Amino acid sequence: MAKQTPFTSIILLICALVYIFSYFGAFQPIAQAISIRPIGVLTQTHEWWRLIGPVFLHFSMLHIVFNLLWWWVLGTQLERMFGTTSLVIMFLISGVASNVAQLLISGPNFGGLSGVVYALFGFVWWIGWLRPQWGIGLPRNLVLFLLAWLALGYADVLWVNMANEAHLFGLISGCLMALASHQIAGIKKN
């Protein structure tokens, strides 16, 4: 399976290794190396990897299992259908968009792959709606569940802190990438 989905596998492995090393006492040096910094600091230090770095940090077993499960389910589907390069582009765009949104609205103390996961969710959801002939999509109940989870995060009734802006801007970026793919496919057809 890894041969067909190398990027999905690599990101899963990196997240798992970062979590394992963090669990066994290396959280501070890892977080210091990859956490996002204010934009003004980044323009001075040129540490641009920090725009994507928070996607590799997870704070609990439930957090990483939930994110990696959805990354694997959606990432493998998209990487097989659209190719590795397309998934890398989706990962980078949605990772940076969701991390910067979370930074600007709530500050630098956050992490997780869920902004990217919400982007993949948004992409598959909208492509299923815009291009049903491509044969991908999500069941209506799953869409409702993930949208309800997003709303519950904003309602602040859950037992965990959530990176709500990362989730929202991940979802928006995924929907916009689906719309762009739909438009590009229409242009290529004509």
TrEMBL record:
Gene Ontology cellular-component annotations: membrane
GO BP of this protein: proteolysis
Domain of life: Bacteria
Entry-linked Gene3D superfamilies: Rhomboid-like (1.20.1540.10)
Domain Peptidase S54 rhomboid stretches: 46-180
Bilayer-spanning residue ranges: 49-74, 86-105, 111-130, 142-160, 166-185
Enzyme class name: hydrolase
The keyword Transmembrane is annotated on this UniProt entry: yes
Record's bilayer topology term: Multi-pass membrane protein
Primary location group: membrane
One Pfam match: Rhomboid
Keywords: Cell inner membrane, Cell membrane, Hydrolase, Membrane, Protease, Transmembrane, Transmembrane helix
GO molecular function, one term: serine-type endopeptidase activity
InterPro entries in alphabetical order: Peptidase_S54_rhomboid_dom (IPR022764), Rhomboid-like_sf (IPR035952)
Record's subcellular location: Membrane
Enzyme nomenclature, EC number: 3.4.21.105
Cross-referenced PANTHER family: RHOMBOID PROTEASE GLPG (PTHR43066:SF26), RHOMBOID-RELATED PROTEIN (PTHR43066)
Name listed for the protein in its UniProt record: Rhomboid family intramembrane serine protease
Organism: Brumicola blandensis
Taxon lineage: Bacteria, Pseudomonadati, Pseudomonadota, Gammaproteobacteria, Alteromonadales
